[in-house]
């Protein structure tokens, strides 16, 4: 999947932006506060329907405006009849959102995500190592969502069952035993299926991750292990039933698929406690790149990479290795940098490269110097 056209209107400081990105590398340069990250943010909103850096829409809509509008043409090489898919999203200050795909109103943002898989590498990516299990679970589920068509509905059903169970635990107390039995069974059944999909995905992801680490010349052994959210020795239904009296006392479900995690370690210690900042960046990049490679291998789909401030934390050699991996994957990349020269030497002359200068919310194509 590649973006062939991108229009941004009344989004942060960007307005009247109309660009035709390259199918390869798109380098956005400009001073601090120019609007580079906002371009990545707009692409991410087109993929998942929400921003990666603001929970309030009013922060994203341009000051004094009523709504923002984003439009793109996505090239889908897997669709033979209509490979160009127009997508658009607009949102107003009341948080009302309209998503259109090929001229039709879309039911949910999940349809956008399916069409335009996007991976973001930015300073928040470190959360994959230092953040809560939720961050790693979201990372894992991004991958499973894109390769297993039945995953999303199972995940939605398990969330519903979990919510009902938690409600009973909190308010129903002991009178709700019969109803708890029903939700235990429902949750456990979805949990076992989700667990199998997640486990199978991690088994395929690990070799891609290890190979990517090697391509980035990272020599320490990093182990990635999957924790499914309840004791390995038992099934989910037994875990829920065994925990019931404690769950009732606490008012929520302690174990289950909502507690799954990936444990990323070096010499049995958490990677975040051992690795330097630059090494951590390489590890998180390897995880995110491995997901893109696996997506390509299993579905033929390519994801778009958004890389905010690639030079940060990485020396020139490692920047080059990272760029080489991205080049080899032949996916579309949008990269921001304050300093154009920091990335100038990183690309092979055969790589399609477009340069854009961002200034006061305007994006202008420039030439390779
Ligand atoms: N809702 C909004 N309306 C108008 N302008 C906004 C809004 N929200 C943020 N801005 C401004 O838009 C710009 C967004 O900057 P952005 O983070 O995209 O810059 P950047 O080029 O990535 O900068 P840096 O190199 O410092 O990371 C900032 O100048 C900010 O003050």
TrEMBL record:
One of its GO terms (cellular component) is cytoplasm. GO terms for molecular function: ATP binding; single-stranded DNA binding. Keywords: ATP-binding, Cytoplasm, DNA damage, DNA repair, DNA replication, DNA-binding, Nucleotide-binding, SOS response. InterPro entries: DNA-binding_RecF, DNA-binding_RecF_CS, P-loop_NTPase, RecF/RecN/SMC_N, RecF_2. PROSITE patterns: RECF_1 (PS00617), RECF_2 (PS00618). It is found in: Cytoplasm. Residues 3-361 form the RecF/RecN/SMC N-terminal domain. The keyword tRNA processing does not apply. Transmembrane segments: none annotated. ATP binds at residues 30-37. The keyword Nucleotide-binding applies. GO terms for biological process: DNA replication; DNA synthesis involved in DNA repair; double-strand break repair; SOS response. Belongs to the RecF family. The RecF protein is involved in DNA metabolism; it is required for DNA replication and normal SOS inducibility. RecF binds preferentially to single-stranded, linear DNA. It also seems to bind ATP. HAMAP family: RecF (MF_00365). This is DNA replication and repair protein RecF. It comes from Oceanospirillum multiglobuliferum.
